[in-house]
Amino acid sequence: QLSAMARECSGGRPKSLGPVMYAIPAVLTLLVGLNPLVTGNFLWKSVSAVHMSVCVVWAVGLAYHFLFHTQQNILHEEEGRNPVGGRIQLALAIAIVLFPFISWIYVYTNKEMQSSWPTHCKTAI
């Protein structure tokens, strides 16, 4: 039943690009870990930009699908019927999503932390 739901969410096509979409940022991150100066490479920047663009387009398409093809209200689903569990899961999901952004803002605005950054980190943004 789960694979049928996955096919329904992907427009009837099986999800075969999933591992590739996770492997691309993993390889890009590995390259940065091995050589931090690789972020200045044209190929690295191009692959990163294309991957981010594809992910944004996919997310917009998925949001469109869920917005206009929803069968019923989310509160009618199992998570919505459980007032405690659903709220805890929602709060946890929001915290997990917001943590990287809050961390980035903290690090980026903390001048003491910026003083110890290497040169390639100071010129990245």
Automatic annotation (TrEMBL):
Q: Where are the transmembrane segments?
A: 20-38, 50-68, 88-108
List the coiled-coil residues: none
Q: Which UniProt keywords apply?
A: Membrane, Transmembrane, Transmembrane helix
Cross-referenced InterPro entries, in alphabetical order? TMEM220 (IPR029377)
Q: Return the protein name.
A: Transmembrane protein 220
Species name:
Oryctolagus cuniculus
